[in-house]
Amino acid sequence: MIRDSAAKFGITCMLVSHDPHDILPWADDLLILRDGQLIQRGLPRQVYDRPVDEYAAALLGDYTLTNGEYFRPEAQTAFFFSTHP
């Protein structure tokens, strides 16, 4: 519905939400802010699969952090998280 309206009128829509069910299905670009600062930006699937930190992971759904790896309950894959660049 939002995507259809944006396409119909040739406009950009921005949805601000703390609910991943609101944003993940329709967003073209996902931005995560913490304390007014951008901490991650990317395609929704990329941000969901590889959040930059535990804050970003928690915003997008259930996860388990084990030895520096996040596991999503519905995913068969894991990825490594490090606080050091």
Helices and strands in order:
Blueprint: H1 2-9, H2 20-23, E1 30-34, E2 37-42, H3 44-49, H4 54-59, E3 64-66, E4 69-71, E5 78-80
Antiparallel strand pairs: 1-2, 3-4, 4-5
Structural summary, described in words:
- The chain is of the alpha+beta class.
- It has one domain (2-80).
- It is 28% helix and 24% strand.
- The chain has four helices and five strands; from the N terminus they run ααββααβββ.
- The strands form two sheets. It has a three-stranded antiparallel sheet with strand order 3-4-5, with no helix packed on it. Strands 1-2 form a two-stranded antiparallel ribbon.
- The radius of gyration is 14 Å and the shape is elongated.
- It starts with a helix and ends in a 5-residue tail after the last strand.
Multimer state? single chain
Strand content: 15-25%
Largest β-sheet summary: 3 strands, antiparallel
Detail the poorly predicted runs.
76-85
Global Rg: 14 Å
Shape: elongated
Q: Roughly how much helix do the residues carry, as a percent range?
A: 25-40%
